Amino acid sequence: MVRFMQISFNVGSTKFITLVSDIIVSQGTLLVAGGSTQCAPLYRYAKDGSRMENITDWALKKFQKEYNDKKISKEDIFHYVYAVLHHPAYREKYKINLKREFPRIPFYENFRQWAKWGQNLMDLHLNYERVEPYPLEREDIDPEETRKAYKARLKACEEEGIIEVDTLTTLKGVPAAAWDYQLGTYSALGWVLERHKEKKPRDATIREKFNTYRFIDYKEDVIELLGRVCTVSVETMKIISEMPE
Fold it and tell me: E strands within 23-151?
C-alpha cells in the first residue's frame, strides 16, 4: 500500500519551489515574498475516511493514449510530474506562468525515463534522513589550543567548499554541485545553516524567558544532517543534469 505523499509547490511567489512530503505541510512552508503553498496529494480522503485517487481516470487515459502504453499507472504519472517540476528548461520556459497559476504539465518524450527520474528524486527527498552522509572532511581544534571564545558560526564559503560550523569545527570538501540544489532563495545546505543559527528574538520577554536554544547542544546532529543533505543535493543535481536541455 502506498503511503501518504503529496507534491507541494508555491504559486504567486518570486521563485518557484517544489517538494514532496509524506506529512501534511504548513501553508506557509514554501512562501517566497508572498504567494501561497499549494499541495497535490496522490490520494485524498472523504470525511468517512475512505480514500480516493487524486489523479483522475481522465488524466490516466490521456497519458496512456499519448504514450500508447496501457501499463502507465497513476503513481507513474505522480512520479513523472515531480520530475517535470524539477526540469530547469521547464522552469525557465514557464517561469512567468509558474508565478501566477498552477503548473501545467507537458507531454515529454520517453515517459518511463521521466517517471524514473521522478521516483528517484522522491526517494531522495523523502528519505533524506536515512541516506549515507557525504564524506566531508572534518577538522576540529582543541579548545585548549585556542584563545577564542566559543561561538557558533554556521557560515559557508561555497567557492572553497568549506562550512565553518563554529570556532572549533570546520567541514571541508563540500562539492560545488551541492550548492546548486535550491529551495527558494537558499540552497538546501544554506537552508540548514540558516535555520540552526542562534538568533535573539526581538521581544524582550521571549528573549529573556524562552530563548533557550543553544547550537552547541545540537552540534553533532546538525553536522550529521549537513552530510546527509549534501548527499541529497549532489544526487539530486546528478539526476537533473541527465534531463534534456
Answer: 36-41, 43-45, 51-53, 137-140
82 and 150, same structural domain? no
How many domains does the structure of the chain reveal?
2
From 98, 126, 154, the end of a domain falls on 126
What integer is the mean pLDDT of 176-180?
Answer: 95
- Measure the CA–CA gap between 170 and 89, rounded to whole angstroms: 36
User: C-alpha cell of 127?
Assistant: 528519505
Specify whether 15 is located in the same domain as 120. yes
pTM, entire model? 0.89
Is residue 65 in some structural domain?
Answer: yes
User: 185 vs 4, 13, 84, 116, CA distance in Å?
Assistant: 28, 11, 20, 27
- Do residues 199 and 215 lie in contact, with contact meaning Cβ atoms separated by under 8 Å? no
- Summarised one tens digit per residue, pLDDT across range 106-146 is 999 999 999 999 999 999 999 999 999 999 999 999 887 77
What strands, in cross-sheet order, belong to the sheet with 18-21? 18-21, 6-11, 36-41
Domain that holds residue 174: 137-241
Q: Which residues of 60-70 are buried (b: 16+ CB within 10 A; e: fewer)?
A: beebbeebeee
Environment class of 160 (CB within 10 Å of its CB; exposed 0-12, middle 13-18, buried 19+): exposed
Question: Which range among 95-109, 194-208, 222-236 has the greatest average pLDDT?
Answer: 222-236
